[in-house]
Specification:
The protein folds into two domains: about 10-240 and about 350-450, Aminopeptidase (3-Layer(aba) Sandwich), CATH 3.40.630; about 240-345, Alpha-Beta Plaits (2-Layer Sandwich), CATH 3.30.70.360. It has twelve helices and 19 strands. It has helices spanning about 1-25, 30, 35-45, 65-80, 170-185, 265-275, 315-335, 355, 360-370, 385-395, 415-435, 440-450, and strands at about 85-90, 95-100, 105-115, 130, 135-140, 145, 155-160, 195-200, 220-230, 235, 240, 245-250, 290-300, 305-310, 340-345, 345-350, 380, 400, 415. The longest helix is centred in the N-terminal third of the chain and has 25 residues, at about 1-25. The chain starts with a helix and ends with a helix. It binds zinc ion. Zinc ion (ZN) binds near residues 113, 170, 204 and 227.
Length: about 450
């Protein structure tokens, strides 16, 4: 009798395994994606102007009231989908839960940001759909998207702005793709899914949105931001970033009586800037080289404020750059008796690479999912940061997936419906990979949850 029971149990287990596998093999995820719905949602979100403001972001999140409009629309959509715990917090971070349909599954968070960069006009956005057959795309104000940029989009539906604003595919493509993936999972309840948490954040472009997000107490095992470019790319490395702020206070005396008394803070600032390495600027560095960037100088004879960016992939190098600035400023302060120089290094985020090594499956499973979409995954080092850099640093490991847009932060920004579909397929495939590996990976996850 005992033997029979064991045989029956083994038989059931094997059947279950075959069943689970079949579900995934029978339905390629791409076929389940509703491209029209994906396109419609993207356009709906893109039309809402959500430009953020880096100056105001120091004081309040969201930095601009208009971001709230999109948060409300998204929350309504998530409620209509029947997701659990749909919430907008005081910073207009939108969260929702989509429980798993199987016990003992990983908890995976998907992030996208609602704001757009204010580098160019952010709205009102008037999206245009082009059935692209080749050549340049010419928009209003003679804004031209070059055919070289569009070489992979022939035969695709390319979406652009009308040329007067950015499009905002960064990151509304990411939002639309995540929501489409959820739609697919709702429509296909036989697909086993992990526990999914959605987070839509304000103020990514100002770097401040995640500072008000409680990553430490957020109940997820890992996360992905969907905020990159090409679908095959997986951003696993970012800069180490400091945004130093230097305040130089001089000594102001009436110019007529200034001899040997006045210290003009602008002149001191000029002296400092002349000591920065000339070849270590964004325009003269590439690949893995770091840089110093002078972001803003504001001043009078009495006081000058210099805002800078210091970036490097190597943490020790980034630290060395900060030490160099500090040492240089100290020397200058010493030389000009009476000048006061205040230096704040302001660390913003760290390279996520090292921290991700703690749980390499976060990367390898994502690669497996991307492969399943028929792509050749490529790990990418971003010459910038992502929301994931800050989240990873705070313990929520978060590499960045492609959202499909190109020419971010400009009027020539575009995304195609086909590329968005691919990115959505990646999300679905990556979630499936986690489900398939759940048995082997759960002990490790349970250990990490402690
Ligand atoms: Zn973005």
């Amino acid at each position: 009798m005992k033997k029979i029971i064991i045989i029956v149990i083994i038989f059931l287990c094997v059947c279950n395994q075959i069943y689970a596998k079949n579900i995934l093999e029978d339905k390629t995820m791409e076929k389940l994606i509703n491209k029209e719905r994906l396109q419609a949602n993207f356009i709906k979100y893109a039309k809402i102007d959500t430009g953020s403001d880096s100056v105001k972001a120091e004081l309040q999140i969201p930095s601009t009231d208009k971001q709230k409009n999109l948060a409300i629309v998204i929350a309504k959509d998530l409620e209509q989908l029947g997701l659990k715990n749909v919430n907008i917090d005081k910073h207009y971070i939108v969260t929702a839960d989509f429980p798993s349909n199987r016990e003992n599954m990983p908890i995976i968070a998907l992030f996208a940001h609602m704001d757009t960069s204010s580098d160019v006009s952010t709205g009102p956005v008037n999206p245009q759909i082009h059935n692209y057959t080749g050549g340049d795309i010419v928009l209003k104000n003679n804004i031209i998207i070059k055919s070289e940029d569009l070489k992979n989009e022939i035969g695709n539906k390319v979406i652009t702005s009308d040329g007067t604003t950015l499009l905002g595919a960064d990151d509304k493509a990411g939002i639309a793709e995540i929501i489409e993936a959820i739609n697919v999972l709702i429509e296909n309840p036989s697909i086993i899914r992990p526990e999914i948490k959605l987070v839509f954040t304000p103020d990514e472009e100002t770097g401040m949105g995640t500072t008000v997000f409680d990553a430490e107490n957020f109940n997820a095992d890992l996360a992905y931001t969907v905020d990159g470019s090409a679908p095959q790319e997986l951003d696993t490395e970012t800069f180490n970033a400091y945004n130093p702020e230097i305040t130089i206070t001089g000594k102001v005396v009436h110019c007529g009586y200034a001899y040997n008394k006045m210290i003009n803070s602008l002149e001191v600032a000029n002296e400092f800037l002349s000591k920065l390495p000339k070849d270590e600027t964004p325009a003269k560095t590439k690949g893995r080289q770091g840089y110093y960037y002078i972001d803003e100088i504001k001043g009078t004879g009495e006081r000058t404020i210099i805002k800078m960016l210091v970036r490097d992939f190597d943490y020790n190098q980034a630290k060395k750059r900060i030490d160099f600035l500090e040492k240089t400023l100290k020397e200058i302060e010493k030389k000009h008796n009476g000048v006061i120089i205040d230096f704040k290094p302001k660390m913003r985020y760290l390279n996520m690479k090292e921290k991700l090594q703690e749980f390499p499956e976060v990367i390898t499973y994502a690669e497996e999912g991307i492969k399943r979409s028929g792509l050749n995954p490529k790990q990418n080092s971003v010459r910038g940061g992502t929301d994931g850099s800050a989240l990873t640093l705070r313990g929520l490991l978060t590499p960045n997936l492609g959202a499909g847009g190109e020419n971010f932060h400009s009027q020539t920004e575009f995304v195609s419906v086909e590329t968005m579909t691919k990115c959505c397929e990646n999300i679905l495939n990556i979630l499936s990979v986690w489900v398939e590996h759940s048995e082997e990976i759960m002990p490790k996850i349970l250990e990490r949850r402690k």
